[in-house]
Amino acid sequence: MSDEHFLRVENLTKTYGTTTVVKGVSFDFAKGEFISLLGPSGCGKTTILRMIAGFETPSRGSITVDGENITAIPPNQRRLGMVFQAYALFPNLNVGDNIAFGLKVAGIGRDERRTRVEEMLKLIGLPGYDKRFPYELSGGQQQRVALARAIAPRPRLLLLDEPLSALDAKIRVSLRQEIRAIQRELGITTVFVTHDQEEALSISDRIVVMNAGDIEQLGTPHDIYNRPATRFAATFVGQLNTLPARISDAAAGQANLGGRTITLPGLPSGIVNGAEIGLAIRPEMLSPVPRAESDISLDGTIHDVSFLGSVVRLRVDLQGTMVNVDTFNDQSAVPPSRGDAVAVHMASRDLMILPR
Amino acid sequence: MRAPPQSRRTMTEIPAPGRPIRRLNLEWLGVAPFIIFAVMFLILPTLYLVSAAFVGRDGQLTFDNIAGLFTDQILAAYWISIRISATSAGIGAIAGLAITLAIIRGRLPDALRSAIMTFSGVASNFAGVPLAFAFISTLGRLGLVTIILKALFDIDIYRAGFNILSFWGLTLTYLYFQIPLMILMIAPAVDGLKREWSEAAQTLGASSWQFWRHVGFPILWPSFLGTLSLLFANAFGAIATAYALTGSSLNIVPILLYAQIRGDALQNPGLGAALALGMIVITACANIIYLVISARAERWMR
Amino acid sequence: MKPNKLWAWIVFGIGAAYFLVPLIATFEFSLKMRRGYYSFDSYASVFSDPRFQTTFGYSTLIGLFAIVVGILVVVPAVYFVRLRLPHLRPLMEFITLLPLIIPAIVLVYGYIRLYNSSSIIPFTGSALGTDVLLTCAYVTLALPYMYRAVDTGMRAIDIKTLTEAAQIMGADTARIITSIILPNILVAVLSGAFLTFAIVIGEFTIASLLNRPAFGPYLQNIGANRAYEPSALAIISFIITWGAMGMIQLLARFAPRTSARTD
To answer: Are B261 and C105 within 8 A, CB to CB?
Structure first.
């Protein structure tokens, strides 16, 4: 039972003076889940993490881990592990002593410490590094040591505070895969704070999208990306084109888009005839060639072509509205060029309706 | 400081082979005054004294001057100087560190912090004769604190054995510039202790004391030692405060050397040089001890 | 969860008491020249003493010369070492640390023995020569502080990039130093200057042993012969030191900063 409600946050609120940075947030996660708190800077995600760690005292609400209410427990008795953005390795201790620190203060014997350090170094792929000092390691290596240090005492919960944002792009991708693999191997419940939506989408079991101290949406990466619950969630996660449309017949679910009448599935109630709406669609759901499910086609001109590698992004002018159209790179085809006329195809079921 | 107009010519012409040397000259010309100054007013006088310590009245090499240091009076002077310097440096360093930790880690208000830093700048330079006056007015026989303690609490500190002209009197006075100096020198190191380090230690289960024992103090240790050795040298060479406080009644090395230079005592230039050499050796030793310990402690630093 | 700040306040309180009580006591004592009531008579007595005026003037003058010489010696050296001779940096650091390790009394003893009237450079042979020697001695005393102030100033403005930018536009070295570097490190240089002044103004040992009519020996003389004037002088000295340090604080607000810092 407590495995299903392993980490439970209820009505968590944090107020500084007159500003409320976290507004009554609640969530509930199962043991072994990898959870991301995703949002722009200042959205309160770091404050939530620091309240879970115990460095900030909640103004209201409670935090429960494995059935134990830890809201009032000092940080050094919470048995959590934390990895910081700037590594925060102890510069005066070598790698082995850094990893063993939590074991040492817990009073674990020298032999067991040594065994565990070796085990951890193997886990993070740095065997034999125990005598090195932090300054002798690259950023990626330091962060892996920081991860090992955090998980060595077998914490109940692992907290990651933007652990990848100080690293180079390449290392960022490889290390996040490594973190995920280690987390799976150990089955440790993990809370990961990030402002990078791609990072959150790629490694999480579930994502909490936050904005202005509140939860915008909580769901799996697939849900968040494909069925954003709010306008904020839709625009913050992934690329999004917005096409202006006008409701022509609310009862029949019909709208006018670029002079054509289209039928929209699942038009929310309360929308009246003549209402201006925004239709959102991901760039990869637009196509310069018709696909089987395409039922709408709009004419435009190519304004710009950006070659992104595996994807070629076309910026298309659709009668005054700029949209991005992502196509896969094709070695054999002639690349489209500026000024070409193009028809943009889409399926009406891929359109998301955003209130204007 | 004048640059040849050549620099513009070489933009269009192939650089002449002589140009790099010219540039070198200019650089050395800029550094030369500093080097000459250091040689004339730091290196030569010191070396001269060091060599003079080994020359007798007849101009011959001798160890008599060094041997002459080993009299009861001179040894006692060195001993009391070392004790006062070590005590005032040690207490000053610990008290200074405590105050620095209080204002930075104890999160006292920012305004208080900048006030303390400014005051430290003033007090660390408020040494010498005026400082002696201040402590005579405070803890002298007619000093305010002496009188208040007697009048209100019936405690006569002079009857209890205290004397401003004594070891503890001088140490207490020296602390007035030692503590602020420590605060000024150690504050950057304490500022350099990242908040994440103590937070990381906490999540790993460490108590506040365990954090300081294994991480905080070891990181501060080299800076602490460095400042400690500076404080020691600072007190060891100080004479104005002691002289104004006690005249020549307190037998410390700088006062002895001062009297020797003035020709009031000893009347032996070789012995004077030996006294000076002894002072250099002791302050140098304090710094060498620091360098050795910090080199061992700093193997984790770049 | 928040560390208890009580200990911090206790430490601060003890420290504040130790540092403020002597100031209060000295001030109180300086007001007691007349029996029975407080007066500023001791201050009046000090200010009307012609020896106060001459010795203070003399020390101020020597201090100003020491500042000028210090700037001329330190600024070009720091500039070229930072720019082109970085391998000399450890040597500079070492040399500028020496005055903190070699006691002033030892240095002045060396000067007296080395530059006496029968030597090659007989500084102590004439009053003017001795004044020059005293000035140089004060430059030496202030060297660690002047060096660090200037070095910090140059680090903050990234002189390498500034110099290269000026060179690209065709400026020669003299122009670079006078119109680019100096204005930008003016605040740092002035900080060093005020620090030099604070160190020099009441200096006793060197002035006394060189037998110059400076403020420090005058203070000592008053201390040995008067009762209340020393307290007044201590307060005055404290205010002068405070003034010099206050100027540094004030100047720090005008210090230039560039976003790019190389070290």
So the answer is: yes
Which domains, ranges and CATH numbers included, belong to chain B?
6-52 (no CATH), 71-300 (1.10.3720.10)
* Interface check B300 vs A, CB under 8 A: yes
Based on the fold, state whether residues A206 and A283 are members of the same structural domain.
no
Neighbours of chain C (3+ CB pairs under 8 A): A, B
> Given A53, A91, A92, which is nearest B203 (Cβ)?
A53
Contact predicate B78/B85, CB 8 Å? no
Asked if residue A127 and residue A43 are part of one domain, the reply reads yes
Confirm whether C192 is domain-assigned.
yes
C110: amino acid identity, one letter: G
Are residues A75 and C1, on separate chains, in Cβ contact within 8 Å? yes
CA-nearest of B82, B135, B89 to B251 is B82
**DSSP characters over A77-90:** GS-EEEEBTTB---
What are the chain C neighbours of A75 within 8 Å (beta carbons)?
A: 1
- Which residues of chain A lie closer than 8 angstroms to C4, CB-CB? none
Instruction: Give tens-digit pLDDT for B203-238.
Output: 999 999 999 999 999 999 888 988 899 899 989 988
What ipTM is given for this predicted complex? Answer: 0.84
d(CA A241, CA A183): 35
Enclosing domain of residue A336: 241-355
Please report the DSSP string for A20-80 in residue order.
EEEEEEEEEE-TT-EEEEE--TTSSHHHHHHHHHTSS--SEEEEEETTEE-TTS-GGGS-E
Contact assignment for A74 to C1 by CB distance below 8 Å:
yes
Q: Is B157 helix (H, G, I), strand (E, B) or coil?
A: coil
pLDDT tens digits, residue range A55-105?
Answer: 999 999 999 999 999 999 999 999 999 999 988 999 999 999 999 999 999
Partners of B61 in beta bridges: B55
Q: Which tokens in the block code for residue C174?
A: 């003299």
- What are the two backbone dihedrals, phi and then psi, of residue A248, each rounded to the nearest 5 degrees? -100, -35
Residue A2 counted as domain residue: no
Task: Give the closest-approach CA distance of B197 to chain A in angstroms.
Answer: 6
Of C92, A55, A266, C178, the closest CA to residue B1 belongs to: C178
